[in-house]
Write a structure and sequence with these properties.
InterPro entries: O-antigen_ligase-rel_domated, WaaL-like. This protein has 450 residues and is mainly α. Helix content is 67%, strand content 0%. The termini are far apart.
């Protein structure tokens, strides 16, 4: 590196340092602690307690009990601390979460767990999911000001990006897929950073692109472009086709929704393409006519044979359409289940590669309906309300964009209600952010009006 480049890097680093110092200046000890909890939660979900797994080792495919116990303890403690902090200052915000619809969803999940085929597994995983989701929902309330929220979000993003790039350039065997990987050696060369798979790295990088654009829009002209550029470049090298295509498409869709006044037009813009995507994917194995149509398309909406997995999952839904097979308890051991001739490989799948179908399998059709009402339909109404009261327009657009990306990403991958999945965490954060923005004044901070 020549001297001018080194000087420029030094200037940028000092600029970021000044931004953190100025943004956190004036906070008392409790407020600073709240910011630390927010940053810890973001780093725990993005970097994890086990970064850079060695996919060349058999150990990468097994779950280590002690490591999982540490994850449960870490998430549980952080969630408890977050609840205590928020309850002491933001009671109205917490009470706004207690709605009949939210209670129905939680109640149904508890009923589903009682009747689960693997009750112990469902209980254990639900506890982790509850801790992770609680942190995601409360995170918009933890930083005392919107500026400190921005710094927490941008700081955590930069830490992750620096780690990912250092891994790629200094220890590529731990940060990229290689031909020696135990599973999927055909992905050799694709970047995965600190994550265990490029299919996790690519959607996270897409979300960080949106974060960078948001930070730039609110005046962070060093951190914002840095996050957006670093995440965008990394996204390209992951080789994640779905996320790469969705990245700009979803941002364009969100921008169109942002300038549309009518709620009904917003619904059409958001949901009609989403319905079409589900029809072209899962719908193609339900309807021979749709299947014939998809075969005429210039691209393969089944993503190279996922139709076998969807048929297998649909058969599982038909077995228990109401109660489902149990939260997070179906895909652990399906090797003994019957499949269509020639589709036996579907029993080796880890999930159904469609979030909506996977929920129907695990928590039943009533559970899927409740998730759609809470996480698909309600957020758009919340965005409309926030927009009507001109509450933090740039922040509302960030939440809208992340929410929309999650909806469309869910047509090809499974992440909804999935424990410590980083896409689920950021999606739940966005949904919660829209919920709070719709109900409380949020010019400088996401707090109730005093």
């Amino acid at each position: 590196m020549d001297r001018s480049a080194a000087d420029m890097t030094d200037v940028e680093a000092r600029s970021l340092g000044y931004a953190f110092r100025d943004g956190l200046a004036g906070l008392n000890a409790v407020q600073a602690a709240r910011c630390l909890v927010a940053i810890a939660a973001l780093l725990l979900v993005l970097v994890t307690l086990d970064p850079f797994p060695d996919l060349r080792s058999e150990a990468a495919t097994t779950v280590v009990g002690g490591r999982m116990a540490l994850a449960y303890i870490s998430w549980g403690l952080l969630a408890a601390v977050a609840v205590l902090f928020v309850a002491s200052t933001d009671g109205p915000s917490l009470r706004s979460l207690v709605t009949p619809l939210h209670l129905c969803l939680v109640g149904w999940l508890l009923v589903n767990i009682i009747f689960s085929e693997s009750r112990g597994v469902s209980i254990q995983r639900f506890v982790l999911a509850a801790s992770v989701t609680s942190l995601a929902v409360l995170l918009p309330l933890l930083p005392p000001t919107q500026r400190s929220f921005n710094l927490c979000l941008g700081g955590a993003a930069l830490v992750l990006l620096v780690l990912c790039y250092l891994g790629v350039f200094l220890a590529p065997q731990y940060a990229t897929h290689t031909a020696l990987d135990i599973t999927e050696p055909m992905l050799a060369g694709d970047w995965r950073g600190s994550f265990g798979h490029k299919n996790v790295a690519s959607p996270v990088m897409t979300i960080l692109v949106y974060v960078g654009i948001y930070l730039t829009a609110v005046g962070s002209f060093v951190m914002g472009p840095a996050v957006a550029a670093l995440a965008g470049i990394f996204l390209i090298f992951t080789g994640g086709k779905t996320s790469s295509v969705l990245c700009l498409a979803i941002y364009g869709l969100a921008s169109l929704v942002y300038v549309t006044r009518s709620l009904w037009l917003k619904r059409i813009i958001c949901f009609v393409p989403l319905i079409v995507m589900n029809l072209l994917t899962v719908g193609s194995v339900l309807s021979p006519a749709l299947g014939a149509m998809t075969r005429q398309l210039p691209l393969d909406p089944t993503f190279t044979g996922r139709s076998d997995i969807w048929e297998f999952a649909l058969a599982a839904v038909a077995e228990k359409p109401v109660i489902g097979h149990g939260y997070a308890a179906f895909w652990d051991d399906v090797t003994e289940r019957q499949t269509a001739q020639g589709a036996e490989w579907a029993t080796s799948a880890a999930h159904s590669h469609n979030s909506y179908l996977d929920l129907a399998v695990t928590i039943g059709l009533p559970g899927l309906l409740l998730v759609i009402l809470v996480f698909v339909l309600a957020p758009l109404g919340n965005f409309q309300s926030a927009q009507a009261y001109s509450r933090s327009g740039a922040l509302a657009k960030l939440f809208l964009t992340v929410w929309l990306f999650g909806l469309y990403y869910g047509t090809t991958e499974t992440f909804l209600l999935e424990r410590q999945n980083p896409i689920w965490f950021m999606f739940a954060l966005a949904v919660a952010g829209l919920h709070f923005l719709a109900r409380f004044q949020c010019v400088d901070q996401m707090k109730p009006e005093r």
